[in-house]
Amino acid sequence: MDAPLRQRLAAYARLIRLDKPIGSLLLMWPMLWALWIAGRGHPDGYVLLVFVAGVFLMRSAGCAINDYADRDFDAHVERTRRRPLAAGEIRPWEALIVALVLSLTAFALVLTMNRLTIALSFVAVALAGIYPFTKRWTHWPQLVLGFAFAWAVPMAFAAESGRLDAGAWGMFAASCLWIVAYDTEYAMVDRGDDLKIGVKSTAIRFGRFDRLIIGLFQFGFLAMLAGLGRHFGLGLAFDTGLVAALMLFGYQQWLMRGRERDPCFRAFLNNNWVGAVIFVGIVADFALARG
């Protein structure tokens, strides 16, 4: 393989964030919670494979669309100025082709699911396409991202159980709260640059109340999950996972105390462990119930 081709493939890999899997992991956790609960601890193996692949494909497509939408902004932001589009390594139309191919591949997988899941997938695509442009006209792009990421929850319930009940929508709403919280932490990293170039975010809207409001979202998320645990018949292991998540949120608040760029980014990354401990609690609860 010659050097130019290797460089082009490396640029595509960075475009879809193969080097930064945190986004895929954060998108995956609520989906896994939903699949395990809908399947009562025994999700269908094929459905699980399709959804894991779909998470990777749609997150990658979303990154390509995001970089296309932000191509005139990213060069002015410290964290993003080396992205392939911002650095001129690939052209805008290439990012659109990458996003299209990945989205069509994900849709082909969804077509093997039931009709309800297929219908919900159109909303998922619309949310993924709309989100990157919302930061131009609202301070709440993090809420739109919450809808987009959390939409994996009703899709997972639909694929696994064939229906959507109040519990599924409750988990969707709870997941939205968590996503707004951690994406606001992410936005705090770029707040100084965003103010200069006119990009909007909840980090800017919340101002000096940012940590307080993030804390309220985090508390609301855990409170809703505690109630959903009762609804779904989950017990001590699940509750233990929620306590662990509460401790991790406390650590994040400590990291953000000075609102400095790197600690805020570390607080954002720490949310991967929040998703993991809740998932372990769900898996353990069903395993203990079977025992």
What does this structure look like?
The protein is mostly helical and 291 residues long. Helix content is 76%, strand content 0%. It has 13 helices and no strands. The chain has helices at residues 3-15, 22-38, 45-69, 92-110, 115-134, 141-150, 152-161, 166-197, 202-206, 210-231, 236-255, 261-269, 271-290. Helix 5 (115-134) runs antiparallel to helix 6 and helix 8 runs antiparallel to helix 10 (210-231). The relative contact order is 0.12. The mean pLDDT is 92.
Task: Describe, in short, the structure shown.
With 291 residues, the chain is mainly α. It is 76% helix and 0% strand.
Number of helices: 13
Helix content: over 70%
Number-wise, the strands total 0
Structural class: mainly alpha
Q: Helix and strand string, N-terminal first?
A: HHHHHHHHHHHHH
**Quaternary state of the chains:** single chain
Please state the overall shape, judged from the principal axes of the Cα atoms.
Answer: globular
**Low-pLDDT residue spans:** none
Kindly, what is the distance between the CA atoms of the first and last residues, rounded to a whole number of angstroms? 54 Å
Query: Overall mean pLDDT score?
Result: 92
> Strand content of the residues, in percent?
under 5%
Rg over CA atoms, rounded to whole Å, is: 19 Å
Give the biggest beta sheet: none
Structure keywords:
mainly alpha
Topology:
Layout lengths: L2 H13 L6 H17 L6 H25 L22 H19 L4 H20 L6 H10 L1 H10 L4 H32 L4 H5 L3 H22 L4 H20 L5 H9 L1 H20 L1
Helix pairs in contact: 2-3, 2-7, 2-13, 3-4, 3-5, 5-6, 5-7, 6-8, 7-8, 8-10, 8-12, 10-11, 11-12, 11-13
